Amino acid sequence: MAHYEVSAGPATCQWGFFDPVAKPVLHVQSGDSVTIDTMSGNPAFLPPADKFHIPEALTLIHKHAQQGPGPHILTGPVHIAGAKPGMVLEVRIDEVSLLQDWGVNSIRPLGGTLPHAVDEPRATVIPLDEKRMVGVMPWGLELPLKPFFGVMGVAPPKGWGKITSIIPRAHGGNLDNKELMAGATLYLPVFVEGALFSCGDGHGCQGDGEVDGTAIETALRGKFTFVVRDDLNFTYPRAETPTHYITMGMDPDLDQCAVAALRDMIALLGEKANLSPEDAYMLCSLAADLRVTQTVNGSKGVHAMIEKSMVHPTRATAA
Q: Which helix (H) or strand (E) holds 144?
């Protein structure tokens, strides 16, 4: 299979939106892999250029790209041949690495889980040590870096038109799921020809919840392998890691997020372990975990996780 590279820049990035009629920056075949560079950074929150490396691509994007309704700089979209509405795009996250030596955490008034925590915008530049893979907090704490892309998604249905990058939906998008590191696989339902995959919103690390509204926002490079799946037909994002299956729910109401993630996990257990809905529900209560993905993106998120070792086809019990 072939391998391609997509650099970040004004010609290859969408700032703040997904668009079902966007022109692809690359065409690939199912099974091909692509290394994608992404940029991240609000022009108001850049660190001193004499102390940190500011990628030229980021400067050019700020200067020449027109920002849409959201804040995320997304690289793409990539067109995957053979992907058609009703199919599923398997996105294998092969590698994730840093592209700069800093990140930013920002808090804005009336945002985040605690909307009234601050009255003035606040941005903190966090140095990133790639050799030791830590981020150094202002008081000296060294946070282990676990980089992942906050935004990975395909184009939405054509009837939705151009949509903001902020709100996660059935197409994926701003999932902010820290489990989606290198080695994980994301499954996205396809809504338009070619799927049109984009990614960005690089995170150096993040806690479940992303409570102040941002993670360590930084530039990342990712290597992805894309596989078109015509044998799958689910309509909402799912994922898996080497050890767990993951289902997701997104809604403004956190209770409804939990309901959606749980119902999809019950469906997954029926598919993979041949369990009845009642037995799958019981197993979820005993072995699955509901985790708050994020509480800050308009539609909040909950993901359900279950160890793969708990999921296997049932065997008849001898009388």
A: strand 142-144
Q: Among 196, 229, 262, give the residue marking a domain's end.
A: 229
Q: What is the pTM of this model?
A: 0.96
Which residue positions in the chain have pLDDT lower than 70? 314-319
Residue given tokens 């994922």 in the structure block: 239
Q: What is the pLDDT of residues 81-92, one digit of tens each?
A: 999 999 999 999
- Of 29, 27, 2, 24, give the one whose Cα is nearest residue 11: 24
Continuous H helices in 95-225? none
Q: Are residues 284 and 179 in the same domain?
A: no
pLDDT in tens, 98-130: 999 999 999 999 999 999 999 999 999 999 999
* Together in a domain, 253 and 280: yes
Whether residue 178 sits in one domain with residue 148: yes
